[in-house]
Design goal:
Helix content: 25-40%
Shape: elongated
Number of helices: 31
Strand content: 15-25%
Structural class: alpha+beta
Radius of gyration: 35 Å
Strand order of the largest sheet: 12-11-10-13-9-8-16-17
Length: about 900
């Protein structure tokens, strides 16, 4: 208490002499004794923080005591900010509690119980998504190692500590119903406000000013004039906390004992070196005990960032206090901030000079319009529509998850209309909407995704713990709008807000002009929550450069180095199907008054297979698509298509293994053999194509342009392998030619599957399947030979102990390759190299024929490096298997 008692704040509040027996004297004494008890009890709670955070700088009672000195400094002298005893009690209580939520003991439950509640699961899912860029599945989090769970616990306590502080004054501890504010009358009068002020130190300054711009009336037991100005106290808490970063929070001995690492260690080092600040000429001045050597330059820069944050808090406090006719604090800035060399005058360096040489964007609007446009996405104008559809889908599915609605709920409306001789594109959703802070923050923060920000945890609790998976990850998609329009309006109404709270963000001259936000006019207000983005297009979408114009499309479904161009202009309906073939909301289209439904939520799982393949072939004219889909080969592939499901039973693919799709055409292109039409998505939107697949696989984007992605099916190799094995059985029934069977067997093996009934090995007695090879009585020594794909005249005659692998001795270089054998059939360097190839399958078949353990066969195998065996005049590379 000595630190607190020495401050002018304490003396003015609790050492002021009032006449004995007066109301002022009695209530002053009540406040003082209650605060002393409040501090004593809270000190024990603050002492528990170390048990949850070993690497944190000091957050115990010495920190809250030191905050009185910081607040004293900011109040100034006799003509500065003054507080009456009630205000001082509220200030002291808020300082005590503002970090108390970091202690696990501040919760009713132990950590195992906390890990079962919704708030912890939300924080855990958010933390997991940040690390692994996907939502956790099944019991992945619960099955994590203790160190990872500890990091999640820390993340949870950090993210919730301010909110938890709000409830601590009214929470009882222990069986004896102990309250931190023991006096019932004071707890009733001030407890809630103390909690709110403590919570507010974590809010944006604008929110603090808006919510706490009020006076709390006097306690019924105290003098009527002792009201409490919550705004003044809230900004005093914020600013005092921001400047209390000196060595009292990072004692050298404690650092030596705790041995903090990484970023925490650098925080300790900088605070260990800083002296107590003081105020001079309206600025808070810091100084260092000794200069920072070059080896501690990272710590110096962390200090610079901490002081910059304090500088912003002081400036913001002055603006908000003056705007609301409050006396400003004694300081409105931190000396030396704004210029690294200027700060060096106060916080010194040794033999090195800090220079503000971070990446600087001199023309942010040009960067956003460039990297958010053609340089990233290419010249196609359809990108803007895709990105808007993606944002609309994310917002709609987020609302669906929050409200527990059916998986097919949610509509997105896309319309094209002609208004005042201007073509207008609108994308409207019924999602969670955006507040003014999001509209002017995350939406236009180039590279900053709302879904990856801490704001989503506080704005929409439980969303991150749901099955919601946002498509938007990079925070740049919105800027693609300016590829096709200069005049853009975003009209949004947040979830649970009133109709008249609809906001409009407007760009009238692209990214180079000014941006305006305003309340929506009565005719703009949205009936339900959601967002409408309106683009006034620069040109007619049906002209040569427009969004619906045909373009040359390079596709893996075409012979190499060829591209195709539709002769017909796209309809808006077709374009939506093409861009969002697997979207999980309903896409409704209105093109110049003509209404239609482009996609029904999740319909890719159960629509007729020809309709799914038609979406993959949408870049071709309608007659061309029809001819392809009516071919017998295509019909066989449709019968072969099956669903791929993840371990939760959700569909993540619907496809067949197939290499080509031959068909006869009367068009000038004549005979064509297309590679199988397919699409791999990024989220729910078209990303790219792959080989050997006919159908659709859901994926996640691997690059910002979303022109490449990773199929979700690759996450669990066993699921993919089982699907591939089933496909192998179907191929055996549908394809009779051994060269086609062998080719596709190679891909089945790439996916970890067993091509048991596909002919892919040549023996002295002809082509054999894996199953047939397993049932043969093979000699005790077998040579595996590289074949010439089982075709052509240059086929050597094989001996009884020779097996020719028609794909040769090659491991997979296909982009679908899994990281490891999903069934872990052996652990050997040869197996790790060849398990995904037909060479590996041959070794496995031989070991099964012998009835031997695969690992033992691999141990006995003689790997022939740079050797070849003459066979009928042909030299063939080979390996030798010897029976254990």
């Amino acid at each position: 208490m000595k630190t607190i008692e020495a401050t002018k704040l304490w003396k003015a509040a609790f050492e002021m002499d009032y006449p004995k027996g007066t109301l002022e004297e009695t209530f002053q004494s009540k406040l003082e004794s209650s605060f002393r008890s409040f501090r004593y009890l809270t000190s024990m709670l603050l002492g528990e923080i170390d048990r949850s955070f070993r690497d944190l700088t000091v957050h115990d009672i010495t920190h809250t005591d030191a905050l009185w000195q910081s607040a004293d400094l900011l109040c100034g002298g006799a003509h500065g900010v003054t507080l009456n005893p009630s205000e001082t009690f509220v200030l002291g209580g808020a300082l005590l509690l503002h970090d108390a939520g970091l202690a696990l003991s501040s919760y009713d439950e132990d950590i195992l119980s906390i890990r079962t509640n919704a708030a912890w699961r939300d924080a855990a899912s958010f933390f997991f998504r940040r690390i692994f860029d996907r939502r956790p599945r099944g019991d992945e989090i619960e099955a994590s190692d203790p160190e990872f769970l500890q990091k999640i616990d820390e993340h949870f306590l950090r993210s919730r500590h301010a909110k938890q502080a709000e409830v601590l004054t009214n929470r009882s501890f222990g069986d004896n119903s102990i309250f931190l504010i023991e006096d019932h009358d004071l707890r009733e009068s001030f407890g809630y406000s103390i909690g709110q002020v403590a919570y507010s130190h974590w809010w944006p300054a604008d929110k603090t000013a808006a919510k706490l711009d009020r006076h709390l009336g006097a306690c019924p037991l105290g003098p009527a004039e002792w009201t409490v100005d919550l705004l003044k106290i809230a900004f005093l808490v914020r600013c005092a906390d921001s400047i209390q970063i000196d060595s009292r929070r990072a004692p050298a001995l404690l650092r030596a004992l705790r041995k903090p690492s990484g970023l925490s260690s650098r925080h300790w080092k900088v605070q260990e070196k800083l002296q107590q600040p003081y105020v001079r000429n309206g600025a808070v001045e810091f100084s260092s005990k000794s200069p920072f050597p070059l080896s501690d330059s990272d710590s110096w820069w962390i200090g610079h960032d901490l002081l910059s944050l304090a500088d912003r808090e002081l400036k913001s406090a002055e603006v908000h206090l003056l705007e609301r006719r409050r006396r400003p604090l004694a300081a409105n800035r931190v000396a030396g901030i704004g210029d690294a060399i200027g700060l060096q005058h106060f916080v010194q360096t040794d033999a090195w000079t800090p220079v503000m040489a971070r990446v600087h964007v001199s023309d942010a609007s040009n960067l956003a319009s460039t990297l958010g446009g053609e340089r990233l996405y290419g010249p196609k104008k359809i990108v803007a529509l895709r990105e808007l559809l993606q944002n609309a889908r994310d917002a709609t599915v987020a609302r669906r998850a929050l409200e527990g609605r059916d998986q097919k709920w949610g509509n997105v409306e896309i319309s094209l209309s002609l208004e005042d001789q201007t073509h207008v594109l609108r994308v409207k959703d019924e999602g969670i909407g955006m507040s003014g802070e999001v509209l002017t923050g995350s939406l236009i923060d180039f590279g900053g995704s709302y879904w990856r920000s801490d704001d989503v945890l506080s704005d929409h609790p439980s969303l991150m713990a749901s099955e919601f998976e946002p498509n938007g990850k990079f925070g740049i998609g919105f800027f693609s709008c300016f590829m096709v329009a200069d005049h853009v309006r975003v009209i949004s109404r947040p979830l649970d807000s009133a109709k008249n709270e609809t906001q409009v963000l407007e760009f009238r001259d692209g990214l180079g002009g000014r941006i305006h936000i305003r309340p929506a006019n009565s005719d703009e207000q949205l009936i339900d929550s959601g967002t409408t983005v309106e683009l006034r297009l620069r040109s007619n979408p049906r002209n040569q450069e427009g969004m619906l114009a045909p373009w040359h499309y390079r596709s893996l479904t075409l012979p190499r180095d060829e591209s195709h161009k539709r002769s017909d202009y796209w309809t808006l309906n077709e374009l939506c199907q093409w861009l969002a073939p697997a979207i999980d909301v309903n896409l409704n289209v209105a093109e110049y008054g003509l209404k239609s439904q482009a996609v029904i939520a999740n319909d890719w799982v159960d629509i007729a297979p020809e309709h799914l393949l038609a979406r993959a072939l949408m870049y071709r004219d309608a007659d061309d698509r029809r001819e392809i889909l009516e071919s017998e080969n295509a019909k066989d592939r449709m019968r072969q298509m099956t669903i791929v499901r993840d371990d939760e039973g959700k569909a993540i693919g619907r496809a067949a293994i197939c290499k080509t799709l031959p068909f006869k055409s009367d068009l000038p292109i004549g005979q064509l053999s297309l590679f199988a039409p397919n699409v791999v998505t990024a989220g729910r939107f078209r990303s790219h194509e792959t080989l050997y697949i006919c159908g659709l696989f859901l994926g996640c984007p691997s690059i910002a342009s979303r022109n490449a992605g990773n199929p979700l099916a690759q996450i669990d190799g066993a699921l993919l392998a089982n699907w591939a094995s089933g496909q192998g059985d179907m191929i055996a029934e549908l394809e009779c030619h051994h060269t086609i069977q062998a080719d596709l067997a190679g891909f089945v093996r790439v996916l970890g599957g067993n091509a048991r009934h596909l002919a892919c090995f040549r023996t002295k007695d002809g082509m054999k399947t894996f199953a047939e090879l397993c049932s043969m009585r093979l000699p005790d020594q077998v040579d595996l030979l590289q074949d010439f794909w089982g075709t052509g005249e240059r086929q050597a005659e094989l001996k009884p102990n020779q097996i020719s692998v028609v794909s040769g001795k090659m491991k997979s270089i296909h982009d679908w390759a899994l990281d490891s054998d999903p069934f872990a059939r052996a652990d050997h360097k040869i197996w790790n190299r060849f398990w995904m190839s037909l060479w590996g399958a041959a070794i496995e078949a031989v070991s099964e024929s012998w009835g031997c353990d695969l690992q033992d066969v691999l141990q006995n195998m003689i790997s022939r490096k740079n050797e070849s065996l003459p066979n009928g005049g042909i030299r063939m590379s080979y390996d030798t298997l010897i029976r254990p």
